[in-house]
Amino acid sequence: MDIPKLKTTKIDYAKNFVSNYTDMENFFEEICGKFPGAILDVFDTTLDTKETRMSLLRDEYFRLSQEYKYLNFIEEVFSINDNMCFIKLDFRRYEASCASRMFSVINRLDAIDKLIFINQELNLCNCADINFIIEDINLLKMFLKSMLREIMRVDLYFDKKPLLLFGNFDLSLPIAFKNSDDMAMYEKIANNHGLYFR
User: Fold this and answer.
1) Where along the chain do its domains lie?
2) Which residues does 121 contact at the CB level (< 8 Å), separation at least 6?
3) Residue 196: enclosing H or E segment and its boundaries?
4) pTM of the entire structure?
5) Cα gap 143→94, rounded to integer Å
6) How many helices (H) and strands (E) does the chain have?
7) CA-CA distances (angstroms) from residue 62 to 10, 41, 68, 97, 193?
8) Which of 13, 70, 126, 154 is most buried by a 10 A CB count?
9) Cα–Cα distance between 35 and 33 in angstroms, integer?
10) Is beta strand 37-41 parallel, antiparallel or unpaired with respect to 7-8?
11) Half-sphere exposure of 24 (CA within 13 A, CB side)
């Protein structure tokens, strides 16, 4: 069995939301107000800094125990979108020459995800492309877990029923949609897996 690999693509999914954007760092701000959006979260409301549940976000056991909800959600989203996802990622940031960064990434991944990540590194370390297609659920789950564990900052885009999921902190992932019908559909899926849009 072959370890799944990212495939390069010339498709820049960001242009499906905004035709001219300045950079990925400001991309979320550029689409806010133009498209329906929410925060995908384990909590149904924004937590106040004085709330006792805030301490859960610093509890690694709690954070890891919530991953399955996001993984189940993303698996269903992946299926709805014909098992295809786009990702924007500059692998040169994780080159073996940056040994401390590479070790930090690998050290925080599960065993299967280490194999998948190293395989990407070996195949893409000299790749100048930053737009890729994911066509394997284990590859997608590796990137999602790296987002949830705050190892890598990546964004995921699904095209058939457009959804853009942004990497973020504290299990709170900004999410954008092309229309409110898709948002309502995805919200039901999130709720079925114990997640909320807020």
Assistant:
1) 26-44+51-89+130-197
2) 91, 94, 95, 96, 102
3) strand 196-197
4) 0.88
5) 14
6) 6, 8
7) 39, 13, 11, 34, 16
8) 70
9) 6
10) unpaired
11) 18
CB atoms within 10 A of CB 135: 15
Helix (H) or strand (E) holding 175: strand 173-177
Looking at residue 152, what is its pLDDT?
A: 84
List the one residue out of 58, 81, 61, 76 whose CA is nearest residue 194.
76
The count of residues in the chain is 198
Contact 187, 197 (CB under 8 A): yes
Question: Which tokens in the block code for residue 143?
Answer: 């990137």
The pLDDT value given to residue 93? 60
Q: Which two tokens stand for residue 50?
A: 């004085």
Q: What is the DSSP string of 82-139?
A: TT-EEEE--GGGG-TTSHHHHHHHHHTS-HHHHHHHHHHHHHHTT----EEEE--HHH
What residue type is 105 in one-letter code? V
* pLDDT in the model for residue 71: 98
Is 33 buried (19+), middle (13-18) or exposed (0-12) by CB count in 10 A?
exposed
pLDDT along the chain (198 residues), means of 10: 89 68 59 84 88 86 96 98 90 57 81 90 73 95 94 89 90 93 98 97
Predicted local confidence at residue 155, as pLDDT: 86
Task: Give the type of residue at 36.
Answer: P
Distance between CA 74 and CA 174 in Å, rounded? 14
